[in-house]
Amino acid sequence: MAGIGPLSEEGLVRLLDHTGARVTDDRFGPYAEHLTVADLRGFWKDMMLTRAFDNEATSLQRQGELGLWVASLGQEAAQIGSGRALREPDYVFPSYREHGVALTRGVDMPSILRVFRGLEHSSWDPAAHNFHIYTLVIGAHTLHAVGYAQAMDWDGLVGSGDATKDGAVICYFGDGATSQGDVNEAMVFAAVNTAPIVFFIQNNQFAISESTTRQSKVPLAQRATGFGIPSVRVDGNDVVAVHAVTRWAMEHARSGAGPVVIEALTYRMGAHTTSDDPTRYRSSADEDYWRDRDPIARVETYLRSIGELPEEFEAAVLAEAKDMGRATREAVRSWEAAPVVSMFDHVYAEPHSLVDAERAWFTTYEASFTDVEGK
Amino acid sequence: MTAARTASNQEQLSAVRTLTLGGAINAGLRAAMDRDPKVVLMGEDIGALGGVFRVTDGLHKDFGERRVIDTPLAESGIVGTAIGMSFRGYRPVLEIQFDGFIYPAFDQITTSLAKLHYRTQGKLTVPLVIRVPYAGHIGAIEHHSESPEALFAHTAGLRIVSPATPQDGYDMIQQAIASPDPVMFFEPKARYWDKAEVDTTRVSEQLDGINGASKGTAEMSRARVAREGSDVTLLAYGPTVRLAMQTAVAAAEDGISIEVLDLRSISPFDYETILASVKKTGRAVVVHEAPAAYGTGSELAAHISEHAFFRLHAPVMRVGGFHTPYPGSKFEHEYLPSLDRVLDAVDKVMAH
């Protein structure tokens, strides 16, 4: 990594190049050897479903059904490749764009949109999926992830050698987050406590409009060295390579050997959010370059080249993707907001006299309108 | 834990003991750790050193480095990692070394800690206790004497309490630890060495079933009538309770009868007790070390005006610090509320 910039593609771990050809890697190749053609088709399917969901959400925002949407477009390989390397006992701390990882953890995908419709601040039960709620405060969750990992260790869930029991935490964040103090503190705390955690940086090259070159002079993975954490840079648009390095990293963490940093270099093919306008800060040539490196096309090309993407399978996946879109649309349009007075619920776990008084006042206030209108 | 130590703890728990405020909090921490193995202490220098004020003295030796953790020197990291531990059922009790060093953790406290129960519709509780030695009168250099409680009281989701006596130090730290809500526990550092008798048995009945802590949470949220009176209500908490008591003694010499409320809880305020007292006396003076402007006293004055206006004989007065940074310690006796300044406010409300 010495002497290269934060967006260099030099030295990235890669097992499938952008033309869809297999390449070898002595160190990480063995971590992908177990993958069957059916597994690769599964990755492709997951990525297709994630994109279908994502595209539907973008449409719903354009139609005024959502206040905002944060697309995962272009980052499907980084998310599915890593998400499919996890085991049941592992616990995930996502940032807010990890819709593909959510899919791998069995989260009801449409329910993700409840937050973006303004109905509530999270929708799924973290403990039911070992998948924490989204965190919008950049990097804040990385500390929660480290503490959770330390507690897993205290609870004897690390390094026992029992594959059904041992787990680790994987924490996702972006290139922008690496500048946050919390992320750096998280690496300090993880390192000195030998915490079982994998920090998964999705370097999608942009923090809204700012290039990763505004965050770092060196590859982000290189920073790990200073914390005493092993790291690896991987082609984030190569689902096979991402899977392999994540599998290695999780095994390392689960064994009790401590934290790992993975930097997956990918590209945010869409806008930061539906409120963003990338034409103001990046070139179409840049976008074209990365469109040629579309992570879904890559594995699709490979599967076709070896004659392993049968027409009926492809048709079934396309139909399922269409269903995913329709189900998402129908779900979103069916949701009604809870009664307004519910905004006073769950501020505290136990009664708090101020909240109780304000709730009571509001209830009376609302009732006064009902009386006047005779309803 | 050794059998011998358990026996000695039992002996301690059954006794009325004379303790300093710092010693009472230490004993309360020990009792909470004995009661619940999920209680862990975290902070800077709280291990072998026992904390810069020695409040965790001896706990590292008795409970080990896994439960009394010397952390890296990073306040946001302390709070943030503790939040993650709480997701697995742990009850971290954190020490922020000094009031003025809490701000690096402000984001974790206000955007994560305070909101997680709300954001998850109650699916996650975050039962952290953040101990903050605060306030002045120790002749310290800058950043070591501040009173930032209003900054946190403004944030929904946090409970803010401050003990003023060894008894409350012992009881309230255990009530705070047992509470399922995050609690900011502001310790008046200048009062750490005040001694009093502590009944170490009375809190235990409020803590039956560590997660069924309603009684304890409610108890620590209740104001204490520290002295009864009929002319003026002095509202104080933490470091100013002793000053309010001294004021009451001095005013009595002039024939003024002062009721002193030790508020104990800042979020929530116990308005039931507060309004009952103010309606009785018709006059209220709030005394705290934090700057008076935009402060907790302003909130009390506004609430009392809204709810007891026609029972008031005089405007509610505030006595607090000034709208300046905390000055050098040579100035703190003038910057902080003093007996003369509180008596001056009492005279003003008595003039009506």
Morphology call of chain B: globular
Strand order of the largest sheet of chain A: 1-2-3-7-6
Read across the widest sheet of chain B, the strand sequence of neighbours is 3-2-4-5-7-6-12
Largest sheet descriptor of chain B: 7 strands, mixed
Task: Give the low-pLDDT segments of chain B.
Answer: 1-5
What is the quaternary state of this protein? Answer: heterodimer
Radius of gyration of chain B: 20 Å
- Uncertain parts of chain A: none
The CATH homology group name of the largest domain in chain B? Thiamin diphosphate (ThDP)-binding fold, Pyr/PP domains
Helix content of chain B: 25-40%
What's the pLDDT, averaged over the residues of chain A?
Answer: 96
Main pleated sheet of chain A: 5 strands, parallel
Please, could you describe this protein's structure?
Chain A has 375 residues and is of the alpha/beta class. Chain A folds into 2 domains: 29-334, Rossmann fold (3-Layer(aba) Sandwich), CATH 3.40.50.970; 340-373. In chain A, a hairpin with a 2-residue loop joins strand 4 (206-207) and strand 5. Chain A is built from 13 helices and 7 strands. In chain A, strands 1-2-3-7-6 form a 5-stranded parallel beta sheet, with helices on both faces. In chain B, strand 6, helix 8 (166-178) and strand 7 form a beta-alpha-beta unit. Chain B is an alpha/beta fold and 352 residues long. Chain B has helices at residues 3-13, 21-35, 59-63, 75-86, 106-113, 116-119, 149-153, 166-178, 214-220, 241-253, 271-281, 296-308, 332-335, 339-350, and strands spanning 16-20, 39-43, 68-70, 91-95, 129-134, 159-161, 183-188, 195-199, 224-227, 232-236, 258-262, 265-267, 284-291, 317-321. Helices cover 38% and strands 19% of the residues of chain B. Chain B contains 14 helices and 14 strands. Chains A and B meet through helix 6, helix 7 and helix 13 of A and helix 4, helix 5, helix 6 and helix 9 of B.
